[in-house]
Amino acid sequence: MTVNIVCVGKLKEAYWRDACAEYAKRLSTFCKFSIIELEESRLPAEPSDALIERALAQEGARILEKCAGGKIVAMCIEGKEQSSEKLAASISDYAVGGANKISFVIGSSFGLADEVKKRADIRLSMSPMTFPHQLARVMLCEQIYRAFSINNGSKYHK
Question: pTM of the predicted model, to two decimals?
Answer without folding.
Answer: 0.94
